[in-house]
Design brief:
Elements lengths: L3 E5 L3 H13 L3 E5 L2 H11 L3 E5 L7 H11 L4 E6 L4 H10 L3 E4 L4 H31 L4 H4 L4
Parallel strand pairs: 1-2, 1-3, 3-4, 4-5
Helix pairs in contact: 2-3, 3-4
């Protein structure tokens, strides 16, 4: 299955480059240049990952991250910025950003980070699915099989 990636970037050249690289690496890509659309698209498209610029015209990337996490706690989020500060880094980590990449960056570094993040999230989703199946299958039968919570 092809990964579905949302790119939130207001610089047209960077957005174009990210779109082209991701499509060439077999990703389904949706792009937006603003935070309101980003949150809406996370809700509608259920991406595997979001590449999020921290400085956008309509709202701060940290606020977008906060809103995305209210909508989807498990989507992978990579913050990209030319304005990395300790405060942004700490706040983004606290709110659940998975990775933080400073501009300018090497495209191969971004792709490696993205592929690693998508694999990690898929693995976790798989474990959650197994745990749910296990709990449902043995609901009410735990004592019989010696399974305790």
């Amino acid at each position: 299955m092809r990964p579905n990636v949302l790119v939130v970037e207001d610089e047209p050249e960077m957005q174009w480059l990210l779109h082209k690289v991701l499509v060439n690496n077999n990703c389904q890509v949706v792009c937006t240049d603003n935070g309101r659309n980003a949150v809406k698209l996370v809700r509608e498209k259920l991406p595997n990952a979001v590449i999020l610029d921290i400085r956008l015209p309509d709202m701060n990337g940290i606020e977008i991250l906060r809103r995305i996490r209210r909508v989807n706690k498990r989507v992978g989020i990579i913050i990209i910025t030319a304005y990395r500060t300790n405060q942004n880094f700490e706040e983004a980590n606290t709110l659940g950003a998975d990775r933080f990449i400073s501009k300018p960056f090497d495209i191969s570094q971004l792709m490696f980070t993205l592929q690693q993040l998508i694999s990690e999230k898929a693995y976790i989703d798989n474990l959650i699915g197994i745990e749910t199946t296990f709990k449902n299958r043995f609901r009410g039968k735990r004592k019989k099989y010696g399974i305790f919570e």
